[in-house]
Design goal:
Helix content: 40-55%
Radius of gyration: 35 Å
Strand content: 5-15%
Shape: elongated
Number of strands: 4
Order of helices and strands: HEEHHHHHEE
């Protein structure tokens, strides 16, 4: 609040709307509340909303500036609560349906997944098990090696 106190008018220093200021200007409760609100929003944009929720009953009988000390002491836990809430929002996705190009892309990806699943089922049926292979005792290794397979995966950069 020091920056606000520095701009308060001093007696006999300036005129305001043609009138000379005769007394030092004092910080009004409304301005003090505004400063605390601005302080909360500068720390985190959602902090003022959380303070209103957490201290709502106390704010019915007291001003925001009068609970500034309590809020200041609980600041770390309030910010942790906001971060936890933000993390939960990141993990949550709400999609009603895909539009246009996205719908085509998802349909194509599902078709490719089905083709890959069919290919894997066929390769499992035809792949020899080690018990079906003949061992060469001289070099102690299995003579049958399954064929390597290359599968392409289509990717698309998210917007």
């Amino acid at each position: 609040m020091a920056f606000v106190e520095d701009i308060l008018l001093k007696a006999n220093s300036l005129s305001h709307h043609g009138d000379l200021i005769t007394e030092n200007e004092e910080l009004s409760p409304a301005l003090e509340n505004f400063v605390v609100l601005k302080w909360l929003k500068l720390i985190h944009p959602d902090l003022s909303r959380l303070v209103k929720q957490r201290y709502g009953t106390g704010l019915r009988s007291r001003t925001l500036a009068s609970i500034k000390a309590e809020v200041s002491q609980a600041l770390n836990s309030l910010l942790d609560e906001i971060r936890a809430s933000d993390d939960a929002k990141v993990m949550r996705t709400a999609t009603v349906g895909f539009q246009g190009e996205d719908r085509k892309y998802i349909a194509k990806a599902r078709q490719i997944a089905n083709i890959l699943d069919d290919h894997l089922e066929e390769s499992e049926k035809s792949a020899p098990f080690p018990s079906d292979c003949e061992f060469n005792n001289e070099i102690s290794s299995v003579e049958c090696v399954p064929e390597p397979a290359v599968l392409r995966v289509q990717t698309r950069q998210s917007p």
